[in-house]
Amino acid sequence: MSLRKLDFLNRDQLTRIHRLGSVRNANRILKEMSPYLTGFREESFSTIYFLNKEGREYVNTDKVRRKNKFVNHYLYRNDFYIYMGCPHDWENEIKVSDGTFTIVPDSYFKKESKYHFLEVDSTQKMSVNKKKIEQYKGLMRNGELAKHLGYFPKLIWLTTTELRRKQLTLLCKGLPYRVYTMNDIK
């Protein structure tokens, strides 16, 4: 079910989410589940898994995942999911709109009774991030979301370098936000 929710997971993430213990035990369990999974190796990550046809049927989902260039993006997002304690109210790529401004955050989740938006910045151009941030600022200015929730959700960025953290920090001025790097959450 965690692969249904999170799309791609590596062995270490599966071990942490499901408390599988040793690498040997995790490998044994993953081998038992192999009729439902497809795995591949990518860069420095351990084997990355996703549901194959039998796995999708078993967990009753139609969402087909295949190896693509965005896999690391999913894995970074999932690292943050684990870092936040696996929030129950975690939704990936949910459209949020007030009629004028629309965003599709990488994740939308509730932690400590408040909603948060998560954006993962790994390889995209800062100009794309700037446009996203302008959409968030527009949503906040219009006030519809804040009126509905009683507050405007905090925008959380997960990025890869200190330079990108500084750039995102400058762009997010005026929003409730926090910028993490991968080193912060490991």
What would your notes on this structure say?
The protein is α+β, with helices and mostly antiparallel strands and 186 residues long. The chain is 43% helix and 22% strand. It contains 9 helices and 10 strands. It has helices at 2-6, 11-18, 23-32, 53-59, 71-83, 126-142, 144-149, 162-171, 182-185, and strands at 9-10, 37-40, 48-51, 90-92, 96-97, 102-103, 107-111, 114-121, 154-159, 177-181. The protein starts with a helix and ends with a helix. The mean pLDDT is 95.
Give a brief description.
The protein has helices at 2-6, 11-18, 23-32, 53-59, 71-83, 126-142, 144-149, 162-171, 182-185, and strands at residues 9-10, 37-40, 48-51, 90-92, 96-97, 102-103, 107-111, 114-121, 154-159, 177-181. The protein is an alpha+beta fold and 186 residues long.
Structural class: alpha+beta
Tell me the span between the first and last alpha carbons.
24 Å
Question: What form results from the Cα inertia axes?
Answer: globular
SSE string: HEHHEEHHEEEEEHHEHEH
Helix-strand layout with pairing:
Blueprint (H helix, E strand, L loop, with lengths): L1 H5 L2 E2 H8 L4 H10 L4 E4 L7 E4 L1 H7 L11 H13 L6 E3 L3 E2 L4 E2 L3 E5 L2 E8 L4 H17 L1 H6 L4 E6 L2 H10 L5 E5 H4 L1
Parallel strand pairs: 8-9, 9-10
Antiparallel strand pairs: 1-3, 2-3, 4-7, 5-6, 7-8
Helix pairs in contact: 2-3, 6-8
